[in-house]
Design goal:
By secondary structure, the protein is of the alpha+beta class. The chain contains two helices and three strands.
Length: 59
């Protein structure tokens, strides 16, 4: 993935495993909405977290 896309969407790749889970938040929140779920799946799956551009005010 181009670095500008990863930066723009604040992409984080975590975890281990052969299968991947992508957590996509709803409008008005960000990837921190998944913090508890990530902890539960991180040891068995590769996790992709990102923020929808324009969904959250980054201050």
């Amino acid at each position: 993935m181009p670095s500008s896309l990863m930066h723009r969407n604040n992409v984080h790749l975590l975890g281990q495993g052969r299968e991947t889970i992508i957590f996509a938040h709803g409008f008005g929140s960000d990837q921190t909405a998944w913090r508890h779920q990530v902890a539960a799946f991180q040891s068995s799956y590769r996790i992709v977290l990102f923020d929808h551009v324009g969904a959250v005010s980054l201050t």
